[in-house]
Amino acid sequence: MLKKAYYIVRFDLASGAASMWLIPDEPCGLSVTSSCNLLVTCRGEANKLVELSTDGGKCVREVALQSDIERPHHSVQLTTGQFVVCHGVSDSDLHQVCVVGDDGKVTRSYGGRSGSDVGQLCCPYHLAVDKDSQFIFVADHDNRRVVESDVRVHTLRQ
Length: 158
Known about the structure:
Blueprint: E1 6-11, E2 18-23, E3 26-32, E4 38-43, E5 48-52, E6 59-64, E7 72-77, E8 83-87, E9 95-100, E10 106-112, E11 124-129, E12 135-140, E13 145-150, E14 155-157
Antiparallel strand pairs: 1-2, 3-4, 4-5, 5-6, 7-8, 8-9, 9-10, 11-12, 12-13, 13-14
């Protein structure tokens, strides 16, 4: 059976030209790193972060996420160089926001089993960080709320 191919399509607004960049697995989230590269959150068999140069789409690096980060949705890079990753869908055991190093290992996390109480998330789909990487904002989809946390991953407000 043939493996499905996944691509990022880049459109040059000035010229109208398009280019396609092959990626290793299903793309789910996109963000821009501090070095202005494209960070692609891939889920599926790979469960990894792929950093691509915006000049030609060459792979700068791949970060394989530790095995209990299941079906990641989105990731952003902090000013420290670490990454924040949100993961968990309705049938996942864990619904978390994790800070991971460039080795893909979790250094801190927030959440756990799916729920709506303080300290719980249900399908965290998207992330944003402030310009100094002091605060993380999480779109907690199924709870219909935005959770604010400091980078030590302690909840401040919901």
